Each structure stands twice: as structure tokens, then as C-alpha cells.
Fold:
Amino acid sequence: MLSSNTNLPMLDCPHSMKSRFALFVCMILGIQGFASIAQAKTPDDTFYFKQWYLQQIRAEEAWEKTTGSKQVVVAVIDTAVDIDHEDLRGNIWTNPNEVAGNGIDDDGNGFIDDIHGWNFVDDSAELRPNAEDRQEAFVHGTLVASLIGAEGNNSRGIAGVAWHVSIMPLVGLDASGSGSTVDVANAVNYAVLHGADIINLSIEGHLRDPLLDEAIAFARSRGVLTVAAAGNSAYLFGSNLDEMPVYPACLAKEGFYGVISVSGTDQADAQAPYANYGSCVDLSAPGTDFFGARPPVIDDSGAYLEPGYAGGYSGTSLAAPLVSGVAALLKSAHPSWGATELRNHLLSHSAPLQDSALGAGRLDAALALADIVPGSIKESLELRASMPGQPTRIQLWADAEILEFAPFGPEDMRGARAAFTDMDGDGSPEIIAVPATGSAGDWALYGRDGQEIRRGIIGMPLKNGAVAAGVRNGFVLADPNGGMAWGYDRSFAETVFYPFGKTYAGGMDMLGVSDAAAFVPSNGTGHLAITDAAGNLLVNVFPFGTAATGRWSLARMTIQSTGFLVMSGPLGSLRLDDKKLGKDGWIQATLDDLATYPFLTSSGFFTEDPLFRRYDTWPH
Structure:
């Protein structure tokens, strides 16, 4: 058994390129041209014409349905990744719970300043390759990341399978391609606990380690799909995995782990010469003559070459990212799907191959997205607002843009809180903004385009700022330091109500959940009241019992697009599926739950920009 501190075995690469690859990148020369295919949605990326494999998997037809979403997170556990590369930096994941550069472990996860991921080899936050370290796998992590999620249709570089996605770089192997199972297992656990939907493992080893098995099983238990390369043979005919299994790919034979094992094909949909085969293989994808992003490098003359692009790479470790990319597209179209649904769908919607030893078929992005009606996928948006003490701004983050506006004028310094709502029921959100501080109860409603729709003033002075929640066909505002709330329906008729009665004025927390407004007292019994815009009680419960008193707060997590409302107070935290609101279904919430998934609160949460907080996401 491979011990947790043992390097993965050394393999030989075709054409006698020696490499310690647990992952494999091999240059194969003499690649032939490819036939032209009818185009559907063709990106304008400079080197798209070199990406034959995207046409082979019919990515263009899939892009007619979706080009992905930054709400989908793909963890790339590999060698270092150039997170500053022009074609990657816009799609690099950011830890929403960590503040950049302050030298503090803000989210308490044990990793200081893990803004974009973690380097488990060096135990540091440095994810970028060293330009002077020109070992054989130096380019690998950047290349793999670009195949999954290079920004598409941006008039430069290449197109990733998913134009919009969040790549979480986790360094588990050094520049030679050598790594230890303990580092990879730790990276898998980190990915799961920080919201990854898909994990790409373009690595292989002939010895199995229970530590890594356990981490991958944990991923599946949380609905996270693992995509693993089936590996390359040192010979030109591939190896039979039934005789010489590789891991983690061969965990695919045991459904408990939820792994997709990926072999490689050529332009004719035949087995690539080096690609492993056998009953371990679930699916195949193009695996020859890849062109992608490369990090900066010091060339033979000692000159520094800026980050750029390179080609001629082959290997199953490059076939696997194509599967991860299509899985990301599929996840953006079906956000509630977990590992099992994604895996089963990809395998059952693949192009047939003559060779049964190459799995269910060859990856087919168009077939995988065939059930999606163009234009039916809701846009993924994030709403941010500025902190007090600086010009008040609202930011609307979409997959490919940031829209910013000043809801209370350019001179306002009160900061803001904000929420999405759908006033007219057309499926496109409006934005309700309120001041975070001060006694003036002014509010402003804006459209998705940043244009003002309406503004108004609450009739009563606030103690210090307001909070906002989107509800069905309206919105609710509340005084977090008092006991009053104001509801507005689609005609902007105002209803004043008191969630905990007219005599209560001890402050409260409010959060939008399932198109309603949830309230808990800041100083009182553990009372949860959920209302509509007119103040009608939809839920009226005491999850901790009627005798529990103290300060209570609310958070909303997202787990596979099912919202979980978390109520916290002196007796701990409880959560429930917000689609089953009521007395039943409450379970204990742990610190791991809160650390695992991005969550929302009425007072916002940290972003990578210390001047802004995240308040809401869309769709609800």
C-alpha cells in the first residue's frame, strides 16, 4: 500500500520522455489535421482554430444552450497554476470568507490568506509556477485549468469548455509532476469543504491509498463529482487496467466513490496510442495534440517569456479536463444535480465508440446538453454593496461583467445593504438597496441594467440603518435595531407590521428565504417568524424551544441549489431545508456546515475586496 508520505510511482512517457508523472503530459509529433464541422456558436478567441478537440466533442452546439456559470466551482488539483494568466484570471475562484493580504486566517479554516486556493506541496498560498523551474510538468496545472475554463469569446487566447466557471487551483504536485497522496487527499478535502462542485484529478499511481479513497468518498457524500484520468502507458499501445490498475481512476469500478475515469481518443475516435483501457474506464474524450495556456517561463537564453500559449501536448490528463468542463456546463444547467446525476448523465449521453474498453462512449457536449432549451437557463448573479465610510456603491457581478451604481447619489457615505427580488415575476431580478447606517429610511429599487425604477422613504426614522429582503412580488425592509418592518407589494403599497408584536423593540435579524422574509429577535426567545410582504405569518416556530433566550441570527447556505436556512444562538445552530419550512426538518448545524458552503447574512459577508460585502445571489 502506498503510504501517505510516498511519492507517486515514476512512469515512462512515450518517445522516451522521462517523467515522474502521476499525471501525464506528453508531446507527440506528427498530428494530422481534422475535418471541418458545421459551426453553431463559434467564439472569437485568437487560437480557437487550433482547438480541434472542442469541435470533436461538439462544444459549439452545447454553447448554444449554456457557456457555464461562475457559480459552478471546479477544483483543479495539479501542479501550480498561473492565476494571473490573461485567459484565466477572470475565472479564478475567490474564497469569499478570506480577506486578502492581511496575514490572518479570517475564516478559521487553518489556511492563512487562501484567497484563491492553497499550495499543499509548499504549505503556502502561492499558487503560481516559478518561471525558472522548467521541469517537465511545469506547464501542466495551467494547461489543465485552461482546458476547463479559459475565458471564452474574449478575443484572445483559447476557449475553455466552460467560458464562465470558477477554477479553484489546489497545488498537490510539484513541477516535476510528483506528489504524495496525503497532499492530494488534503486538497480533495479542502475542495469539498470550500464549495467545489467538480474535482479534476489528472494524476495516476499504481498503488492505492485508503487516505485518498476516503477523501474521494467524502466528496461523493457531499455531491461533488470527481473526474480522474485513466493514465498513460509507457508503451505505445496503452495498458489494460484490468491487469495493471491505476488510482484514483480505478475507483470508478466501485460506485461508492462516484468517480468518472477518462481515457483518450484521437481525431478518428479511436484509442489514442498511449491511453490506458479496460473495465476501469467510464468515458473517453479527445486526448491528443492539445493547445492551451502556459505560464511565464525563462527560456534557454535566460530571457523571460510572458505567459502565453503552447501546443502539441497529449495525454489522458488532458482528456479528463474536457469531461470536467462539460460537467461544469451541465451543472450550470442543472444546479441541483450532484455527483451521481452528473456522472450518470454524462455516461448515458456520450457518442458511441466501437471499442468497449474505452467506456460508455466518447464525450459529447451537445448530447449532454440536448435537453436544455436555449435561453432557459437563468443568469447567475452576485450582489455586493460598499461598507460605510466611503462612497456608497452597489455592484452587480455577472459571469462576464461588473455593473456598479450609486443608489443614494455620489456623495452618500452611509454604505448600503441590498437584496434581489422579482417584483414583476418575469424571472429577471430587481435590486432593492437601503442605507447600512443613519436614521433616514430611504430606499431605492433598480433594474438588472442598473437603471432606477423607483425610490421611497420609510415613514419612521431608523435607529441606525436598515436591512432588506426580497419576497414574492415585493420586498420587505426592517429596522435591525428596533421591531418594525415595512412590506411593499408590486404596486408599492406599504404595509407596516411587527414580526414579534408591537411591544418588542429589542432589534432583530431578517433574511430573505424562499421568497419570504425570515425574522429572529436579537434579544429575546428563540422565535422564528416568516412572513410575506403584507406581514402575514407563514411560519411561526421556536426551533430551540420557548424557554431559550438570547441573541439570535440567520444565515442562508446553498447546497446543490437547495437553500438551507440556519438559525444560530446561545444553544448552537440549527438548519432546515427552506423548501420545507415549518416545525419539522430541523437538524443540528455544525461549524463544518457553515465553513463548507458560501452563505449569506443580512449584514453581508466578506469578499476579496475589503470595501465590499456580498449580500445576495440570483437565482434564489
Observations:
- DSSP finds nine helices and 38 strands in the chain.
- The chain has two domains: 50-297+305-368, 381-618.
- The radius of gyration is 26 Å.
- Residues 381-618 form a domain with the Neuraminidase fold (CATH 2.120.10).
